[in-house]
Amino acid sequence: MESNIIFNKDFDAASIYVMKIYKADVSTVWNHFTKSELLDQWWGPKPWRCQTVKQDFRAGGIWMYAMIGPNGEKGPMYAQSQYGEITEHRSLDWMSAFCDEKGKINEDFPRSKWLLGFTGVEEGTKVTINIHYHSEEVMKKILEMGFEEGFTMGLSQLEELIG
């Protein structure tokens, strides 16, 4: 399947820009990015899967999740995102961090700022994601961990899920 994902890396600005168009209405795509029961179906590259530990979808709220391996193993790290500004069906942002199972932030991996936009277009919904890292070094470390391949796979899984 042709995924049509744009994934641009700007090392000078320590940021990544991702764009994908889904053949679904904005509210459907929005729900798949904001409701844990839907996020758990696609967030994370197969054979791994996402398992939400807790989600409080509001400004200042937290979405915390574990990655579950093909044999049921968790981790090695959990992740959490603290929501910032939310404009229903239009945009949201969060600060992403790695953490332990209790939610304690792993300071070895500085947080990243995610800005997500949802725009109705003729083909369906255009999702834009801007991820800003603390430094070029941090961005390279995340990419070395397989972020581009894993996130691209997750976005393609979402496409399969919503048609």
Record the SSE blueprint.
Elements: E1 6-10, E2 15-22, H1 26-34, H2 36-39, E3 49-55, E4 62-68, E5 74-87, E6 91-99, E7 112-121, E8 124-132, H3 136-144, H4 147-162
Antiparallel strand pairs: 1-2, 2-8, 3-4, 4-5, 5-6, 6-7, 7-8
Low-confidence stretches: none
Total helical segments: 4
- Measured between the Cα atoms of the first and last residue, the distance is 12 Å
> In what range is the share of β-strand residues?
35-45%
Helix content: 10-25%
Describe the structure.
The structure is a single chain. This protein is an alpha+beta fold and 163 residues long. It contains 4 helices and 8 strands, in the order E-E-H-H-E-E-E-E-E-E-H-H. Strands 1-2-8-7-6-5-4-3 form an 8-stranded antiparallel β-sheet. The longest helix is centred in the C-terminal third of the chain and has 16 residues, at 147-162. The relative contact order is 0.24. The mean pLDDT is 94.
Summarize the structure.
With 163 residues, this protein is α+β, with helices and mostly antiparallel strands. The chain contains 4 helices and 8 strands, in the order E-E-H-H-E-E-E-E-E-E-H-H.
Q: What are its keywords?
A:
single chain, 163 residues, alpha+beta, eight-stranded antiparallel beta sheet, 8 strands, 23% helix
